[in-house]
Fold this protein.
Amino acid sequence: MTGARKVVGQPRRRVDGRAKVTGQTRFADDIMLPRMLHCRLLRSTVPHARIVRIDTAKAAALEGVHLVLTGESFPIAYGILPVSHDEHALCTDKVRFVGDPVAAVIARDETTAEQAVNLIEVEYEALRTYATPLESLAHPEPRIHDYGDHGNVHKAVSLQFGDVDAALGDADHVFDDVFFFEGNTHLPLEQHASVAVKDPDGKLVLYSSTQTPHYLHRALAKALAMPAAHIRVIATPNGGGFGGKSDPFNHEVVVAKAALILDRPVKICLNREEVFYCHRGRHPVLMRFRTGVTSDGKITGLDLQTLLDGGAYGSYGVASTFYTGALQTVTYDIPKYRFRGCRVFTNKPPCGPKRGHGTPQSRFGQEVQLDKIAERLQKDPAELRLGIVAPPDSLTANYLRIGTIGLADCIRKVVQRSDWTQKFRKLPLGRGVGLACSSYLSGAGMPINWNDLPHSGVQLKLDRSGGVTAFCGATEIGQGSDDVLVAMVAEVLGIDPFDVRAVTGDTDLTPVDLGSYSSRVTLMMGNAAIQAAERAREILATAVSAKLEIPKDRLVFADRRVFDSQDPEKGVTFQEAVIIAETKVGTIGTTGSYKPPKSPALFKGGGVGPSPTYSYTAAVVEVEVDPETGWIAVPRVWIAHDIGCALNPTLVRGQVEGSVYMGIGEALMEEQAFRRLPARLSNALVHKFPSMLEYKSPTSLDMPEIFTDLIEHPDPNGPFGAKEVGQGPLLPIMPAVANAVYDAVGVRVDQVPITPEKILRALQAKADGKPARSGPASFPDIAWPETLHVRPPWEGGDGRASNEPERKSRRKAEAGVEAKVGARS
Amino acid sequence: MMRLPDFRYRAPRTVEDAAAWLAEEPATAMLVAGGTDLLPNMKRRQQTPTTLIGLRSVATLGEIANGDGLSIGAGVTLSQLINDPRVRAGYPGLYQAAAQVATPHLRNMGTIGGNLCLDTRCTYYDQNYEWRKSIDFCMKKDGATCWVATSSPKCLAVSSSDTAPMLQALAATVTLVSASGRRVVPLSDFFANDGMQYLTKLPGEVMASVSLPDADGWRSAYWKLRRRGAFDFPVAAAAVAARLDGRRVDDVRIVLGAVASRPLAATKAEALLKGQSLDDEVIAMAAKAAAEIAKPMDNTDFELVWRKKMVHSLVTYALQEVRGDDMRERRVRIARQLL
């Protein structure tokens, strides 16, 4: 790059902002096509049962009904992870939760479809219902799925990096705490919608509110047994995703099949209840942290166990399980580490990736425990953390490669801005401050389907109009990815972002991008866009250099011009530059692609956690707690985020504030809760309140004042040094609230949500002389699999498990099949 | 999306026509004003009238007039109500109650009559048809059992109106018009403590207006418990109206909201206050007596034991406010807004 940046770093109006605020963005449900039919799904009303009989005759006979489908039409299973292809578009032999789809009606309108759905008769044979992980652990039979580790255990993993028992034995103090993080859901304003069309040439087109058109494309090809080349997936702009639109969904497969059969467009728009049933949200996690520390506050070792309530299907669950144990070492210096995680199936909507994917739960535990450690060691929690921040440009005990770290600066910034030292342990009873930190990946280092292909591709088209079109498979879910795409191209080519047209999320027109998940788009698409733009600039520079007889390395691209840096008057407009180049070389198109660096983690399970770079965040939360009632309010939040480089500070701040909003919701009120009825009267297990009224999420009146600071430690792996911001800033909020409650009224709430009832119970316990705490009592005994032993880098390790080859062959002999996930190919 | 069932819509221009049309099909017709309660319920198939008699074109229902105190047409929207200077000056508790109903959008549509006739609420009942089918329905609609307390002979759905307890504390009356004439009913007799038959209004009656007595010498306050600063129905509430002579309580009415199937008059607490100076100990005594009658069940947001305990605090806050204490800081914390 020559000269000062004109686009990067400038707070700008996003390119899709006008369409959004004027209501012109066309979401999937806005699509109306001639001859379009409408689909409704019949969903299970029982939590766990065998399907004995389905009678669709009455529904099929209703006037206006065009098609009724059942599981028979969908024999092929699919799923997001290669190891968990456990979903059918419509249930074939059994249902696994209230909301599982059993049949579909396609009719002339939604009302008719709904009437017909109610005419379908289903006979069920009830099976034992599993409402909690403890029930699933206690009863291996009947199994919810006929795959997984054993019984109703979907996946159990055990990894050890160094001798943790010895590290805890040598520690001056060992802290042993159990925490619980309740499940919660994404709550996007847009309900999932899809429209399927059979093209005039017989190919399938699916418009859908999906974050991952590429994975949906693959899933459709498999589930419909069609060549992927004959399927086109168009990701419509998402009205919020947060991870809830990252799986291929049954309704997408159903409308695709129906459109192919009927040769008419078929649409479905889920209602809010159904969105709660799609879920794939935050796993409820019970966790136990055993942490050894020296008396001066260094961590000697960590022994972490997590138990995840997975719900009824696999989804991203295996990855989620590893993520509960992946990033502790990326935040703090932990020389020895053991992680054991277990995910079980239950008869509830499947859990999956929600903003922070698997990491907020254990982040909560670790940050609250650090607060307890600081208290015991009589150290300031900020000072304690500053003493253990993971070192930059290092390899962690579990082989994650860290680049730049702005965490210490983040901590110092929020301490200074919040006036921390004047407040911590100094405010009157009922007011308190709490601090917490976090780290997050800027894109998963491994793709879901393991291969050596690029993770993101960008194509550019330049022509004599002077306009540039950028094509990329990335999906705009409200996060601003279209804006990042055009900004990268505009910066490199010296034009305005509005001069670049973005064509995104279309598997026919755009090169593959893996999707809007794992905070990967800015980094991966951004790098691919820069590469494509630099190649275009090279073509233009070569042509202009020859034409104007200026050495190529003196040419500057800026202000929509290409000119001589030594004589700025001498040059051409950008459009003229394109014409010169097109005249010389013919039609101009370039490509760029991006693949993350290879990870040094070579052990089974090492595929979850690596990232090109990690973001860091610190937050201070101030609370007001009424000691009489437990009523809690959060008036102020100070947050500092290491973004590497803020490509568009307006978008970055929006993401930070959105994260605080979501974090406050998870901290104080959000819970995906379920209800059982008295067992002697009913087998029911239902979502307690699948509605936006009773599933509580904060309103604008409940929001604190937010003071945001951006810390910029550019990372060489990021585009212009940029890191992620979509997820990391959420993570410190929940533990910071818990720590602030302790500062305010002296009780520990070791679980979220932190409600007035729980605070008051802890206050009462304190008054009764019992432990001043509300939280889970214990962690169950789990039959862990044989631990994989990996020596940390500083103990001469090579990133492989010392006992893995032997184990692999033994398991192969036992099972005959080797699960693919997590295994390095 | 969830769709409304088919229905016929009729739009009378007078209360009398509305009453006459209602009498034509008492079992299948329902009145609709703002529709903020009924229409979502219809989408969930909780009510499935085949005829809706819309009251929007009945001009007299939309007026606020000076009577002995104030006469409020049943079709006056909650937004109109909270912007009326007579309400704000004379009946601050009513302003506080109406201003905390739902959201600005819903208050623009929802009416005072609708809020008084609000269907009782319950987390086993306020669900769509498929969900209710999953629990084999409940006593209030399509089923036999009250899942809140399975041995309960009656439905325990919760009175969830904000204005009802306050208007009862203000000794309001309602005028009901039917094909056979009109009658005036004290609001205290308008409600019944039964989640299904929660109104004493007859099927053929149309609420025409709500009348408030002269506010001279009376102070009022409304304190509502809910999770968030907007949207949520009350899960406990205290409405207090009092006439004070200095600090001495001449007369007082305390009505609890959202802890039974009807607004609950705390008569024992009222008796403890009358003639007493409104000191902290007296307030504490009254709040304790009021909380004793609250019977919250596990069918709303928040845990029931805590809700019951909160009744004590809400009554305390309301009495402190009518005493003249500066409650602004407390109000902002509880209500997330000044009222």
